[in-house]
Amino acid sequence: MQFLFAYPDPVKKAKYTQDLNSYLQKNSHNISAREYANDYMETADKEKYGRYLKEKDFRMSEFPKDLDYIEAKIKTITMVFTNDISIVGKKGTFEKNVKLENQQDGTTKAEIISTVKMVR
């Protein structure tokens, strides 16, 4: 997760985070950093991810999935922007309901198409 938290492109960061949530929810008793990278990351990012994990002495091979730990970590995703606007969503909702687009000036445009449920 630390690799994703530090990812410089906010659109890819959101995509890879959502993809990781999907990967971790697969009906499997094991997980693999290599499998996640191969299934979801672009080639250049796979290489960066592999180097990052190697620097951290983290294995790319398969290991048992700790469901309690994973459930606690992936219940929600929060995206906080520099102007103190945040988007919070339950697992699986970002990819379907939030469109992110990098702008030429370095900002990110976020578009949400939905009905307003509540304002607090």
TrEMBL record:
This is Uncharacterized protein. The lineage of its organism: Bacteria, Pseudomonadati, Bacteroidota, Flavobacteriia, Flavobacteriales. It comes from Flavobacterium bomense.
